[in-house]
């Protein structure tokens, strides 16, 4: 994607210009732009919306609007995304958003990406209690567990989820945490094995785990 298109897309998302974003996404898809690059540009815009919210420029309604715009961007890009990410991977991945957190856009992207690459995915949804991860992991026996979390207050429930999984399912089942603010320090606090803020990197990690099994 050329830098000026990326910048325009980012700005339109940041300005919550719903029609502008959607028509630009449609045009970009028609001209063959990589759908992951479209999503990355919109993700940058979402970050700006978040900053504006923190500064008090936008209210909660701004976050809701941004979420609605991104949901439609995902709807438009999904077919191209599935086509672009086709793969032959195998393995089961159980995913969900941590208890107390209702953000699900990033998790949905990971879900689409993993499925497109060939993984079996079970998505437990949002605000998932630690015990629910454990119950499903015991019955479905996934190869990897992924937990999404975007708000600071979700780190504690992620940590509890990891603790329970280690105690009740397996001490060594690979666990990945994902979300825009993840870093090594949070990963260590939570007790997960891997962290990422990039859906495709998450897919690569899952591939690597299955290869080394
Ligand atoms: C849209 C949005 C909302 C929407 C969400 C709609 C939805 N269906 O998800 C709504 C309006 C519901 C919302 C609510 C709230 N939000 Co909000 N929200 C956002 C916003 C603007 C964008 C999030 C987003 O979708 N980004 C785009 C996606 C694609 O990015 P992503 O999630 O990071 O995902 C990518 C990677 O991280 C990775 N990934 C994600 N998960 C996983 C999982 C795995 C396993 C893997 C491998 C990878 C992976 O893959 C994705 C693609 O690469 C962010 C700002 C930001 N900087 O992110 C704030 C933000 C996350 N929200 C914030 C806040 C404060 C809230 C509220 C508490 C507001 C309130 N007062 O009620 C509530 C929280 C309610 C709750 N209990 O969860 C803060 C959190 C701050 C903090 N430190 O805790 C942020 C950072 C805004 C800010 N800067 O202040 N929000």
Describe this structure in words.
- The termini are far apart.
- The longest helix is centred in the middle third of the chain and has 25 residues, at 60-84.
- This protein has helices at residues 3-14, 18-30, 35-54, 60-84, 105-116, 130-140, 154-168, 184-190, 199-211; strands at residues 92-97, 120-123, 144-148, 175-178, 194-196.
- A five-stranded parallel sheet has the order 2-1-3-4-5, with helices on both faces.
- It is built from nine helices and five strands.
- The chain is 60% helix and 10% strand.
- The protein binds cobalamin (B12).
- Cobalamin binds at residues 43, 46-47, 49-51, 53-54, 60, 63-64, 66-67, 70, 95, 100-107, 109-110, 146, 148, 150-152, 176, 178-180, 196-199, 202.
- The biggest beta sheet, please? 5 strands, parallel
Tally of helical runs: 9
**Structural class, from helix and strand content?**
alpha/beta
Shape: globular
Question: What's a concise summary of this model?
Answer:
The chain has nine helices and five strands, in the order ααααβαβαβαβαβα. It has helices spanning 3-14, 18-30, 35-54, 60-84, 105-116, 130-140, 154-168, 184-190, 199-211; strands at 92-97, 120-123, 144-148, 175-178, 194-196. It is globular, with a radius of gyration of 17 Å.
């Amino acid at each position: 994607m050329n830098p000026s298109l990326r910048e325009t897309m980012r700005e339109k998302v940041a300005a919550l210009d719903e029609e502008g974003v959607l028509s630009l996404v449609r045009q970009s898809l028609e001209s063959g732009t990589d759908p992951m690059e479209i999503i990355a540009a919109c993700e940058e815009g979402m970050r700006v919306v978040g900053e504006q919210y923190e500064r008090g420029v936008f209210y909660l309604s701004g976050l809701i609007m941004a979420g609605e715009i991104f949901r439609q961007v995902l709807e438009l890009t999904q077919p191209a995304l599935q086509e672009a990410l086709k793969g032959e991977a195998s393995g089961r991945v159980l995913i969900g958003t941590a208890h107390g957190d209702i953000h699900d856009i990033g998790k949905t992207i990971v879900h689409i990406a993993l499925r497109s690459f060939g993984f079996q995915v079970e998505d437990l949804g949002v605000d998932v209690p630690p015990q629910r991860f454990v119950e499903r992991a015991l019955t479905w026996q996934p190869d990897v567990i992924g937990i999404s979390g975007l708000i600071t207050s979700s780190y504690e429930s992620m940590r509890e989820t990891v603790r329970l999984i280690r105690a009740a399912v397996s001490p060594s089942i690979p666990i990945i945490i994902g979300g825009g603010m993840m870093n090594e320090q949070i990963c260590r606090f939570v007790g997960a094995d891997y962290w990422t803020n990039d859906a495709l990197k998450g897919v690569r990690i899952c591939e690597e785990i299955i290869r080394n099994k």
